[in-house]
């Protein structure tokens, strides 16, 4: 049994795509286990940049079988467009396998996502607008439509008709919108079915058999620990479990099958959308992270909020995911800062906190307690070994290790596949 998990240790966009691409060199299967096309995972190979939202980043490695597990919600139009995009650009996605248990994102999910955000006013979550929350809501309410339902056209049509009748009541009476006609929706989705169904199967069994045969499996998370529906900064979270437990459920493997848990964290911190962010910067340092780090969303193009690394949050991610190692990304972005800071605790109402407070509303009033680190001037984008990093950069990474309590196995120093310093 040997599955490795790549999990976001912050608020998403840590660089999971590039980490998965790198680790996928040594595996046979790469499985996405949750989320949907709210994810945007960037892989850069030479001069080519790929932004993947649905297909596991392992697809870039020619021998790897990419798998979409049952925990993912699938917008078939987006998935098929991504398949076509890869084909056009010379990447072969034909090995892709899709779980029949995965739920479909339907057009009414997107409408409801937008309508719910509007109605939240000041308390809007800042969702990606892809229908993710409403699709997972239907799944939990046992009102969802699954990929396997597409096999029986009449059954599928009946499911959509019932769902649309239900959603039309919401759309017209609660949100003052026009009702939807189920007929074109059924037609549209049955067209997608012709292309998708050959790829659909029992993926948890596929993974089980692979593990039994001694093949290597990598599980690729979307989003991150602090966006987890159970363990994140609720309600400013996504509607799935990006954390390690979610990997087991969403891929359909028992937790004992996972023996390596790689937490991916930026050397600083970003967040897209609303919600508390104690170390957020509103000064030139934050602007510089946006500019140098190119901190704009892969999916929505939104400017990411930036701040210093939060070690309290990272220790929390270690605990929630049982991290066995950290992969620190974007260290190059911090080159040239005279001082680099990291929060080791928070001050709240005269008290010092070293753990994330149980009541997440308190985070809004938590003032970070910073440790200051000497910066480094050198361009480190060409460094490929930890020992060759400037002394100050090494000290910063070693301090992260000490504070979080797990080893840092890799440090990336640029977005391209090979721009990694291995420990
Ligand atoms: P993901 O959602 O976790 O896969 O991360 P994203 O792809 O949304 O965002 C990470 C961004 O940082 C992408 O634009 C990557 O190309 C870029 N990136 C990843 N690692 C590094 C790095 O070490 N240095 C720099 N400068 N950019 C990086
Ligand atoms: P990757 O996989 C960063 C955020 C949204 C919003 C909240 C809920 O690229 O790291 P949703 O559309 O999921 O209902 O939005 O979650 N969010 C992400 N932030 N990276 C992501 O994915 C995200 N996916 C969702 O901005 O705050
Ligand atoms: Mg992303």
- Low confidence ranges: none
Oligomer state equals single chain
- Strand portion, in percent? 15-25%
Count of helical regions:
11
Beta strands, count: 20
Could you give the distance between the termini?
A: 25 Å
Rg estimate, integer Å: 21 Å
Average of the residue pLDDT scores: 97
**Main sheet makeup:** 10 strands, mixed
What overall form do the CA principal axes indicate?
globular
Structural class: alpha/beta
The main sheet orders its strands as: 9-7-5-2-10-1-11-15-19-20
Q: Quick recap of the structure?
A:
This protein has helices at 16-23, 76-88, 107-120, 132-140, 153-174, 182-196, 203-212, 244-251, 284-293, 311-321, 391-404, and strands at 3-8, 29-32, 41-45, 48-52, 65-68, 73-74, 97-99, 103-104, 200-201, 217-220, 258-266, 269-271, 305-307, 309-310, 325-329, 339-348, 351-353, 367-374, 408-412, 420-422.
Descriptive account of the structure:
The protein is α/β, with parallel strands linked by helices and 423 residues long. It has helices at residues 16-23, 76-88, 107-120, 132-140, 153-174, 182-196, 203-212, 244-251, 284-293, 311-321, 391-404; strands at 3-8, 29-32, 41-45, 48-52, 65-68, 73-74, 97-99, 103-104, 200-201, 217-220, 258-266, 269-271, 305-307, 309-310, 325-329, 339-348, 351-353, 367-374, 408-412, 420-422. The strands form 5 sheets. It has a 10-stranded mixed sheet with strand order 9-7-5-2-10-1-11-15-19-20, with helices on both faces. Strands 14, 16, 17 and 18 form a 4-stranded mixed sheet that branches. A two-stranded antiparallel sheet has the order 3-4. A hairpin with a 2-residue loop joins strand 3 (41-45) and strand 4 (48-52). The mean pLDDT is 97. Bound molecules: guanosine-5'-diphosphate, 6-O-phosphoryl inosine monophosphate and magnesium ion (MG). Residues 8, 12-13, 35, 38-41, 125-128, 130, 132-133, 222-224, 227, 238-239, 272-273, 298 line the site of 6-O-phosphoryl inosine monophosphate (IMO).
